[in-house]
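Risk register update: the risk that structure generation would not scale has been downgraded. Supporting records follow, first protein first.
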Amino acid sequence: MKLVTFTDANATRVGSVVGEEVVDLAAAAPELVAIKARIAPASDLLAEAERTQDAEVFTFCTEHLQAGKKRGELAADLDEEFFAELLVAMLTGTSRGWVAARHRFDLREVLRRRTAFLFRAARSPEPPFDGPSSDNG
């Protein structure tokens, strides 16, 4: 089997060459995503695809974090690059944990909860409370 990387909808994917066509492995056989997580560190091709995908996620996150800071939704002193690295590490670690646990937890729900937690931590603080108004008589 010949494996290749290709870009589809601005995402780097891994495919298999069948004749003159490339078959998207994740779409054709979702269980291969779990296999990839187990063998990626030992495969130069899969490791490169994972690095490319992580870089794309990092760029996406950094751009949206910068926009969130400009809108005042995130703390002004948030280091966007560090936070994006943290998000990528959380996504990778959670996905690999899901594989190691043999899919015994709801991956989508755990990712949602962990991402929400990180963004709550990065949120812009509420305006300071100055105490009760002094003009209430």
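Supporting record for the second protein:
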Amino acid sequence: MDNIQTNTRAGNVAFASGDLSAKNGYLAKLTSTGVALPAALTDDTPYVIVDGGTSETVVKPLNRGEQIRVMLKGTCSQGDLLCAADPTTAADAGKVRAVPTAAGTYKLIGIAEESGVDAQAVLVRAFDKSVTVAASQG
């Protein structure tokens, strides 16, 4: 038997990074130079920072089978669907927010498994899907 999976690993993983030392609980993307905070709503963010460093950061992959805490922008109720907050506001890059009511297509990060307030590390069950909010018929 030819086992090609001998050098893979599950769970937390460390990558090179810029200074993410104050970003535990934030979403992260993988780039050619390591992990970074998202810069656009279209960035894929399959990781959450669990031990941010100044040149190396440990991240945990988002996994449907596990809960994880992610920093929240605004408020949410238990059961709310969560998407990425707008990373063009630097303080919000890597945070999640409740899916807004404004028309648009949003990439879901997961579902809130508890209610949360702004800047809380809210409990999330991850899943990956898009949702479209229709314009109101006014």
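The chain has no helices and ten strands. On this basis the risk owner (M.S.) recommends closing the item.
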